[in-house]
Amino acid sequence: MRQDSRLSRMLHVLIHIGQHDGAMTSEMIAKMLDANPVVIRRTMAGLREEGYVVSVKGHGGGWTLARPLEELTLLDIYRAVGEPSIFAVGPAYDMPGCLIEQAVNATLKDVFREAEDLLRKRFAGVTLADVAKDFPNGGAEVHRERLAP
Questions:
Q1: What are the pLDDT digits (tens) for 87-129?
Q2: Which residues does UniProt call coiled coil (predicted)?
Q3: Which CATH architecture has domain 6-88+127-147?
Q4: Hey, where are the domains in the chain?
């Protein structure tokens, strides 16, 4: 099963935006992530709707943070990107009449729900500033060639 990397990619982008001098265009972000600018705009639009980023059209426009990194948590961004599935494993529904399958599925659902609750709680306690603290310039040197106009 393919992993959903939207959360990781948007955290990456938001930290860069937060430490970038000026707005970052969808094209700059797409180049940095080796992605399509249309996909970037669509994903960033969800973050804009939640009030985490602002976009300005035209020359000198692009994406900027609406709130500082210290006010954005992993949980905020996780929710903004659509709360992707945390686990690649889950219940099976091959034999819905089987009492053992029903018991297994009920137990798995409870365990997964508890684990997801713990992870969401942990996400709520980590800000993007916490993640960025070891990168005083946002790791821009890694993407310098990709961010160059």
A1: 878 888 899 899 999 999 999 999 999 999 999 999 999 999 9
A2: none
A3: Orthogonal Bundle (1.10)
A4: 6-88+127-147
